[in-house]
Amino acid sequence: MEAMCPAVEAVNVTHHYGARPVLTSVSLAVAPGELVALVGPNGMGKTTLLGALAGILSPAFGHVRIDGMRRRESEEVELEIRRRVVYLPADAWLPSGRTGREWVLAVGRAWGVADARLFDHGERLLDLFELKEQADQPMSRYSTGQRKKVALCATLATDASILLLDEPFSGGLDPSGILALKRVLQRRNEPRGGDAAPRKPVTVIMSTPVPELVEELAGRVAVINGGRLVAVDTVAGLRAFTGIAGAFDEVYERLLNPLKQSRIEQYFGAEGA
Amino acid sequence: MTREGTRILLLPRMTMVAAALYAGATSLEWLIARFAGVPRDAVFSQPKPGLFVLCYAAVGYGFGRVIAYHPGYRTRYRQWMETVPWRPGMPLPLGPITLNWRDALALVPAALLAHYVSGGSAVMPLLAFGVAHLLALAMTEGGAGWWGYALLAGFAGMLRLSDYPSAAAAALVPLYGVALGGLRHGLPKLVKPPPDARAALGALGAPFQQLAPTAPSKPLRAYRAIAGAAMVGWWTYCVTWRFWPATATTPDFAILVAVMGLGAALLRFGVYRSGSNPPLSLAGRWRTGRWLIPGYDTVYLMPLATFATSVASAAALIALGASPAASAGITFGLTIFTAVMLPPTRARWLLTSPRQIDVRPAGGGSAKHVKVGS
User: Fold this and answer.
1) Which residue from A58, A97, A148 is facing B373, i.e. has the nearest CB?
2) Is the pTM of this model over 0.90?
3) ipTM score of the complex?
């Protein structure tokens, strides 16, 4: 029964800060195991939508369901949802006095990961993100990129089946970190050495301003503009919809600024004439 | 005396300082009386400065006697004890917390000096010592629970007996028995603490702390709320009985009740509201016409109900002719009970209300955190 329902579902989510609308009737269903990229201009509602899905915000209207359970319906349901979801915002705060290793383990424990699994997985994550040398130093000494890496390690150490990531590739991540994260996201549903039992498919919703990453990673793309979902489809579907076979940033621009290309052409045409 | 004996005599330096202060204060009394050419009793009413010094020294000794040897006050001692094969029933490595014959070496001279030199009651320094000693035991983690509860109730009872110092001092004997029970019960737990999942988590940073799948707080059982409210009421009654001036008027009492009710209401509001923001600002409510957000607004309504309970209870009791002390005790007890028991529970409100979670770092603030992306 549970396998048939979406892993994440936003139903007519509307939210406003004060009287200013930020999200207007946003509905989105994400299947288990899917990776959906949220794209759109700055300040148009991506982070707010992720916040609503993560439970940071309570939408003014509409609701959010996780694995069929409605957020904030009851204490038990909310705690069960929290076990399944982890949210990494672009501006997370890390306790500066703790070492990276301690913190990754603490976050994993908070999400109920067994120690045996957590110690092994945490170590492999720190290794993957090249943090082993710094792992036993207080996080106050970490560089900007290292903070981002350790935050990603902690997020992944939770073994949550739903990852909500706000701009995971930004925040000073170096090329090696970007590659590591890309591979983790691409291979998220492959069985891993440390898994004691078959895992639930990992669902990811992430926001990113980088069109290349969208093409490479996303099963579907949700384009958000002015607080509304403009389009939700696969990259191929969006290409077909816009009639653009070129780079994804052109598709993206066509969806968000349909007149942009004609204005560019007009500009150069006028100059040539 | 052996080296160990000297050590267990406790705080020898402080004892010497106290003796010097007492000698100084008593000499001052003699000198001033001599210059004035009158007897000491004509210059100083009781308690004289010397007796003050004795009582303060007894208080210091009472606290020090526990703090010096109780693992609950000495983290490194406790941590060390957790690594050695100490078991409940064995003597404590640094010395006993409970009273023994060596304490008489300090307390009997203090009582004799109070009576024969300072001209006061010999009971005074013993009472001061006993209260401080038991208070220190009650405040340790090992003295907590129902034993600590009984001790706290007993202290308030001593306040009620304060017109009869001998009776108050006699009350120390059963209270000491309670403290010993608490010590026997609490010390093993303290030295071998049970694993506490929440403590083990420590600071998780934001938003991991706020979104972790752990219940924000344990629900408060009704019997605990009743016990807590009864304790607050009992203390309020005893303190008001002892200190409430006979000349006070009904408006004075109304102010007292208002302050107590407001304090309880603000406490409830602060405990619930901490770490949350409203789903809509006042301006937002005005513009959208959503004046009431039922799931959220209980955070305002329940403190108001708490305050109303306080005022209504006091008015009813005064109308029934109850004394100010009894009215204050019952009212504040009832107010606290209302503040902690009115639904929803804190955990339920935090997990299910349409609040906006404040994702700034909790417990320590941003000074103890570093931000990702900056």
Assistant:
1) A148
2) no
3) 0.92
